[in-house]
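Exercise (ungraded).
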Amino acid sequence: MKNFLFIFLFILLYSTAGFGQCNGFHRTMCELPFEWDYEYNSQSVDIEMTKGQSFRMKIILYEGYDYYIGFCKEEGLGKLNYQFLSNDVVIDQTNKKVENNIEYVELTSKKTRIVLIDIQTEQADGNSVNENRKCLGIIIGNRKSKNTF
Amino acid sequence: MKKTLNMKTKILTAVYLSVSILLAFSCKNSTTNNNKDKKNVIQELPMHEETATLDSLIYYRFPSPKEVFDYIDKSKIDYNNAILNPSENVKKYLELPVQAINLGIYISDLAYITLFEQHQESLEYFNAIHQLSEKIKISGAYDEPLYKRISNNLDNVDSLLVISGEAYQNIVDHLTETDQENMLAVISIGAYIESLYLIMDYIQEYDAESELLSKVLDQKYAVNNLYEYAAQFKDDKILDEALDNLKAIKSVFDKLEVNTPEKTSVDTENDMMVISGGDELSITREQFMELKETVVESRESLVKK
């Protein structure tokens, strides 16, 4: 019980402290591949996370566009688990790729839709809150779809 | 971009994380692990209690005005500067909420103008944006070098498009960094109402098969996300009018018929995930008229202040 109380207070302290200073992380610290042929999408975001934390965001995918969704994390954040959900179904990332230390997927939608991205970091290893606070950049790019459906 | 949370959200975050821990202690089965064991590309989303009750913890994103206009095929429409909010109106806007809303309106106008490569007008609208940014004390987002870049690139279409996009992103970054996401919500609402107004002006007659109308209907999703984003700050007076107007538009979008002729599915083609199926939206003549009227009324009331 004491342990649980400690964890609760730990999380409460962290949560009320806000998300910190990660603004601009993905644009300054994440190098996109030279041949990246997407246009930067304004739905990209930087967040500050600690190990064991989860984050969810809803983005819009327009019909007729290809999307690049990349996860660029600061060293020490640990392994990321993420999944995409659309219309209440989970989409596994069977074509997950890594380039320039950015894990990414490329997807396209035949219809305009909302996609939920659910991100979880691996569990904390006992370091202090500040040590665990790391930036995660979610880089979204779009281009007119090359696929013809 | 810094992610900030208001106090309510922070408290909900704490509760959410606590609930998550409780669930983790009481039930160790992991959805992620389960997913790995299944070969199907898609699967039904398991019900999470916290998902249903703590929806506000989702961070809502929406395309920029430039991205909205890019989505519209400009080859099928002609440039019409008569539908823009005249840049000289900038002097009329004296109160903070109205200034913020009209900043968003001018951002959309600038995106529309640059899409059609109207160079000289882009400078006028950039000036209007700069003036309003100064009035609401976010001119730091629009720095002098950017202004000079626009002046120096009036004949370079590609550069103008990039600069226009950067200018919007600078505002987003600045407001997020300075913990003014309430202001960002107001500006974004202004921008969306203007985008819808400009696009819908090209649709004078109802045609259920119209490609342009179909693209307007697709904005339902962006309007939903924007509304959810802005609603976190609903207790802030600065949002009152903007949110009321967006809510009126959202209410019409909510009336649209949603059909799901084909379940969502995913294939891989050319190393790319292709998502098919899902919802299809349709609009009746009456709903179209209501949407158009609501958008026009909202926009006209906002620019006349």
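Further reading is listed at the end of the chapter. For now, observe: DSSP finds twelve helices and four strands in chain B. Chain B touches chain A through 65 residues (CB under 8 Å).
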